[in-house]
Sequence to fold (333 residues):
Amino acid sequence: MTTRPHDALFKSAFELPEHAAALFYAILPPELRDLIAWETLKREAGTFIGTQLGDRHSDLVFSATLGGKPVLLYLLLEHQSTNHPYMPLRMLTYLGLACERHIKKKKGGPLPLIIPVVISHAPGGWTAATTFGELFDPHPASVPGVARLIPSFSLLIEDLSTRTDEDLRDWAQSAFPRVALWLLRDGRDGEELLRSFDQWAAALTSVMQATNGMEAVAQCLRYIALVSGNVTFENFRAKIREQIPAAEEVAMTIAEELHQKGLETGLEKGREEGRREGRQEGRVGVLGKLSSLKFGGMPPEYAALIEAATDEQLERYIERILTADTIDAVFSD
Fold:
């Protein structure tokens, strides 16, 4: 199972141009969206921004023509599951890398327009900066002659926490993106997810009936299993059996994955505890052997002290016993 469930669900739901187009159309300013030739929208290569940022971005970048002219417009779709205090600076880095990549690819020429869009489902809503100027103290606009010397731009932040079920349904033409937006908004609150499950069961059924539907449903259920921490996945399996019986087999597979993951985690934890206990037993044995050789034995009160000692204390006792003149000096703190 993925260690980045938010990114995995978001990318799966919006990597297709037709799915991204519906989302962009819903949240871009009307005067801009009406100029975009949506039939030209296409996904850019995953390495468009560059590898310098590693896994720090969602890397969903789309291009389209603008205003009936061969003017290139890049729509950068970023996803945030937490409030990032320096999001405008982070986005500025993306924009710079995108421009550099464009220059190398086209060997010069004018730069494309790049519109950064951030889809947020941060707990409690988006409270971080939305403009580059907010990151400075004092604000560039408050110092005469400074504002025009500092980059100035705003982020288009779409906060899912402020949106209703109707909004989410209007934002997507296909069932999978709709369900993904619902899960991103409510997924970390398992109780809320259970309460609204009945209202979204029909959409999940539609996801299952689409092309590659079982894979998409598995993605949704796996997300639920990984993020809804305050409610067990078994509670959702009961809902699935009741509302979407055809998805029970998928749910059972995910439950088995969770069980196996739990076993593996428990096994590794047991191994580490065993290694730790083995190291401690070894130190205790060394102390007993050295005390017998040097002092003729280990008094009961010090034997009890050793049994209750931490790893660090045992290391200290071993170091002391090599130079101590009496056994009391070994355990004197």
